[in-house]
Design a protein that fits this description.
This protein is of the alpha+beta class and 192 residues long. The chain has two domains: 100 residues; 84 residues, ATP synthase, E subunit, C-terminal (hypothetical protein PF0899 fold), CATH 3.30.2320.30. Helices cover 72% and strands 12% of the residues. The protein has four helices and four strands, in the order ααβαβββα. Strands 2-1-3-4 form a four-stranded mixed β-sheet. The longest helix is centred in the first third of the chain and has 99 residues.
Length: 192
């Protein structure tokens, strides 16, 4: 019996020792398993956050791009509308000028203006006019000033040229209308 007891004690000792080693190895494996799980969760979380940030940045970028594109479209529409209104206004003024150059007031206006401008010139002067401006043809003959015709339509008005002194005075309605348009745009902060 003593041998049996020793065997039982030895068995229990071996089993106890094996159980302790097993428990120790299981604890180490559990620690390693937890560390691996934590590392995997950390890696997956970082990857998820990186992909999420990339996707959000792309969405924000695309949204901003669409907004900028829409803003550009709206600004272009606004510019087109503004240009249309301005063209309409100055088109109406152009039409009124074309009507005005057929009136007696136009004849009086250009006669006075030619005489006023000519006073400031010392050399021989030539009047450059549109070939279709019948009133200025008549005025140039009445004032005994040589008239030459321009292929360009001045709408009305004239160029007075002093060739000896190399002076050219532009009193054309076309130039005045263009200057008025520029001044209008500048005054109302509408220049492009």
């Amino acid at each position: 019996m003593l041998n049996e007891q020793k065997m039982t004690n030895f068995e229990q000792l071996v089993l106890s020792d094996a159980k302790q080693k097993r428990d120790l190895q299981m604890a180490e494996l559990n620690i390693q398993k937890e560390q691996m799980i934590q590392q995997s969760v950390k890696t997956l979380t970082e990857s998820y956050e990186k992909n999420l940030k990339r996707a959000m940045d792309k969405i924000v970028s695309e949204k901003n791009e669409r907004l900028i594109h829409k803003q550009i479209e709206h600004k272009q529409d606004l510019l087109n509308m503004r240009e249309g209104y301005i063209n309409k206004i100055f088109g109406d003024v152009n039409e009124r000028l074309l009507q005005y150059i057929k009136t007696p007031q136009y004849e009086s206006y250009v006669t006075d203006l030619i005489l006023k401008v000519k006073k400031n010139l010392s050399g021989e002067t030539v009047l450059q006019i549109s070939s279709n401006d019948e009133i200025l043809i008549k005025v140039s003959k009445a004032l005994n000033i040589e008239a030459i015709f321009s292929e360009e339509d001045f709408i009305g008005g004239f160029l007075l040229i002093d060739e000896q002194n190399h002076i050219r005075i532009d009193e054309t309605f076309k130039t005045k209308l263009e200057l008025s348009r520029d001044k209008f745009l500048e005054t109302h902060n509408l220049q492009l």
